[in-house]
Amino acid sequence: MSDLTVKRIDEMEAVLGGGFKRARASLGVESFGMSILDLPPNFDRYPEHDEARSGQEEVYIALQGSGELDVEGERIALDEETFVRVGAGTKRKVHVGPDGVRLLVLGATPGKVYEPSESSKLGAPEPGV
Fold first, then answer.
1. Which terminal CB of the chain, N or C, has fewer other CB atoms within 10 Å?
2. What is the pLDDT confidence band of residue 84, given thresholds at 50, 70 and 90?
3. Contact predicate 68/60, CB 8 Å
4. Among the listed residues 9, 40, 20, 45, the one whose alpha carbon sits nearest the alpha carbon of residue 119
5. Per-residue DSSP letters for 24-44?
6. Helix, strand, or coil here: 118?
């Protein structure tokens, strides 16, 4: 039998009011982090952060809608044609456009075996709860 998992985005476990889908865990991915963020139009509460503590580099890909990724003061368009990689120690913040944005975010630590955070596991409490 094939080693295969198929899920639609709306079938993935969601937290934070449906805005964060646990895509990695929903698909059973073990080798890298993967989440779907559904951010409403003009959402302004996405936190500026870096991944220095986890050591993960991240790749941001807009699947729908648009916005910008502020990377230490440089704004980069997020759309279906643009992939953006951000290193672990670099600050980043998503700015959402007028139509909202659905982002696929991939992450892993270079040269290390991926270890999922507790909050990314299926059934885990919502972050901050």
1. N
2. very high
3. no
4. 20
5. HHHHT--SSEEEEEEE-TT--
6. helix
Q: Which residues contact 125 (CB under 8 A, 6 or more apart)?
A: 119
Q: Are 67 and 78 contacting, i.e. CB atoms less than 8 angstroms apart? A: yes
> pLDDT tens across 13-31, in order?
999 999 999 999 999 999 9
Please give the structure tokens belonging to residue 32. Answer: 């890298």
For residues 66 and 19, what is the distance between their CA atoms, to the nearest angstrom? 15
Per-residue buried b or exposed e for 64-98, using 16+ beta carbons within 10 Å of the residue's own CB:
ebbbbbbbeeeeeebeeeeebebebeeebebbbbe
* 49 within 8 A of 91, measured Cβ to Cβ: yes
Helix ranges, the chain (H): 23-27
The angle at the Cα of 108, spanning 106 to 112, to the nearest 5 degrees, equals 165
Q: Distance from CA of residue 40 to its chain's centroid? A: 15
